[in-house]
């Protein structure tokens, strides 16, 4: 198969591993920088060009689209879909998962466990907003933030009011969530492929920090999931419409709670913590499922 990886940097660990895994199975792997791709959008023969040349037809495309270029990256992926290339994750599903508020609303509609979440735009609503999520301590998250950036733990009501007022003053979009104290600064990253969790790790925040992201100095260890945690992770990925996803869960007193569903989960942390060849499993999934024009949306939306 001829497989394209949409990635800004072919030297990134995840991109490199996917190339190695694909080539080991005899596939022709190509890395395409989405920002270097440009599109001919027409009714008869949509095309993608790069550096002055039309790209050949690909059998499958693996999107590794960074959050900062979601809009343009999704447009390039949508063009591949219109040309009949099989996408590992569809453009619509990626856009859906990147909108933190929309993704939580969709998960909520399916009855999937979540931290209680509030969203408001007016300063007058702050007192009730804080009460809605159970009061302080609480977590305030910028909707555009990634890798733990723009996430604040407000330990007192006064601190929460100050941070919320500051974010509102900057016209920033944010949500307020209950703080799950019993999680103890740890979360679970469940790596879902198709309808299975194929690997899982526990990420523990460093002392004095509540964000467990590995980019923030958190540590990762192998973890055994409960059946409820596995089922929640798979259901969350399916709700987003993602074939491959990193689902982040918190262990709470009332069961697993979904924090986020990541459409371009990194491979380094999970492969190192679990000693599993996740990249090879992604390629195997493509081998089993890839068919021309096989998208739910047919490139629309």
From TrEMBL:
Q: Where do the annotations place Mn(2+) 1 binding?
A: 248, 260
Which NCBIfam families did the record assign? Answer: PRK10446.1, rimK_fam
| Protein name, per record | Probable alpha-L-glutamate ligase
Q: Which PANTHER family match?
A: RIBOSOMAL PROTEIN BS6--L-GLUTAMATE LIGASE (PTHR21621:SF7), RIBOSOMAL PROTEIN S6 MODIFICATION PROTEIN (PTHR21621)
According to its UniProt entry, one GO biological process term is:
SOS response
Q: Where does Mn(2+) 2 bind?
A: 260, 262
Q: Which InterPro entries match?
A: ATP-grasp, ATP-grasp_RimK-type, ATP_grasp_subdomain_1, RimK, Rimk_N, Rp_bS6_RimK/Lys_biosynth_LsyX
Which GO terms of the molecular function aspect are on file? ATP binding; metal ion binding; ribosomal S6-glutamic acid ligase activity
Q: Where does Mg(2+) 2 bind?
A: 260, 262
UniProt lists the family membership as follows:
Belongs to the RimK family.
**Which positions bind Mg(2+) 1?**
248, 260
> Which top EC class is given?
ligase
User: So what EC number does this one have?
Assistant: 6.3.2.-
An example GO CC term for this entry is:
cytoplasm
- Cofactors demanded by this protein: Mg(2+); Mn(2+)
Keyword Protein biosynthesis on entry: yes
Please state every residue range assigned to the domain named ATP-grasp: 104-287
Q: Is Nucleotide-binding there in the keyword field?
A: yes
Q: Which domain of life is it from?
A: Bacteria
What species is given as this protein's source? Aliidiomarina iranensis
Q: Which residues bind ATP?
A: 141, 178-179, 187, 211-213
Per UniProt, the keywords (alphabetical) are: ATP-binding, Ligase, Magnesium, Manganese, Metal-binding, Nucleotide-binding, Protein biosynthesis, Ribonucleoprotein, Ribosomal protein
Query: What does this protein's record comment on cofactor binding?
Result: Binds 2 magnesium or manganese ions per subunit.
**Pfam families, alphabetically?**
RimK (PF08443), Rimk_N (PF18030)
